[in-house]
Amino acid sequence: MKIFQQALQLQQRRRGFHIITAEIVQAFPALAEIRTGMLQVFIQHTSASLTLNENADPTVRKDFEMFFNKTVPENDPEYLHDDEGSDDMPAHLKAALLGNSVMIPIRNGRLALGTWQGVYLCEHRNYGGARNLLLTAWGE
């Protein structure tokens, strides 16, 4: 069994859903050493999240943003946590709904994603800053 771990800092992005698959692969060349295994991608933040979804049509990512903005609106007067602005508590709720990690199988040194799958950074803040990921791969 081989175990590898790599930190990755992503540059600040605007609010929305961004495909980061290529950045993950580029930052983690140790993937090539695993024939069969798993990769966990973990985000070290509470106001951004990760998910796997459509990697070809950019309208899917726009629809994700529209859906989450309608589902978890800003400026709700019942929110108590708004120290960092009107997007503060909604960002935490959106991150909780989507989650802080994804697991991806590794096959022959490559991510075994489906044809139309990609890893999304889901940035829920207007000015979230750089985001830190921890990549952990294990396998044979």
UniProtKB/TrEMBL annotation:
<comment type="similarity">
    <text>Belongs to the UPF0047 family.</text>
</comment>
<dbReference type="InterPro" id="IPR035917">
    <property type="entry name" value="YjbQ-like_sf"/>
</dbReference>
<protein>
    <submittedName>
        <fullName>Secondary thiamine-phosphate synthase enzyme</fullName>
    </submittedName>
</protein>
<dbReference type="Pfam" id="PF01894">
    <property type="entry name" value="YjbQ"/>
</dbReference>
<dbReference type="InterPro" id="IPR001602">
    <property type="entry name" value="UPF0047_YjbQ-like"/>
</dbReference>
